[in-house]
Design a protein that fits this description.
single chain, alpha+beta, Chemotaxis protein chec, 6-stranded antiparallel β-sheet, two-stranded antiparallel ribbon, 6 helices, globular, MraZ_dom
Length: 143
């Protein structure tokens, strides 16, 4: 399980330090892809297999399903952790998420998200302002 929020800089080569608390669970090779709300997602190979299996269940005759699958799969990249605990994020993904320098890595249960710090701060502020209403609207899913 991934939890917590960590701030790290991404360098000009697209390398970012993976927090030590995430390294063991992620393993040496992981998948980084475009994700929702303007961030990137990091999945272990095992978790990525589950994402893939879920995408295969979507109806290929439904346009939205094809578009969603294309957006996730076409941007996915296999990344390896180096000896200093960094991964190099391909430039097409750093551009996708507007990552320039200050980043936030967020543990989100089964994956890790990488956010541009300004984008994360704005997202978090909006979510915080509406936290009680959001929680109330989701109570049906907690049983």
């Amino acid at each position: 399980m991934f939890i917590g929020e960590y701030q790290h800089n991404i360098d000009t080569k697209g390398r970012i330090i993976v927090p030590a608390k995430f390294r063991d669970e992620l393993g040496e090779v992981m998948i980084v892809t475009r994700w929702l709300d303007g961030c990137l997602a990091i999945y272990t190979m095992e978790q990525w297999q589950q994402v893939y299996e879920n995408l295969k269940k979507l109806p290929s005759t439904k346009r939205e399903a094809r578009m969603y699958t294309h957006m996730i799969m076409s941007k996915a990249a296999e990344c390896e952790m180096d000896s200093q605990g960094r991964i190099r994020i391909p430039s097409h993904l750093t551009q996708e998420a507007h990552l320039t320098k200050n980043c936030v890595l967020v543990g989100v249960s089964d994956h890790v998200e990488i956010w541009d710090k300004e984008r994360w701060d704005a997202y978090y502020e909006t979510a915080s302002e509406n936290f009680e209403e959001i929680a109330e609207s989701l109570t049906e899913f907690f049983e």
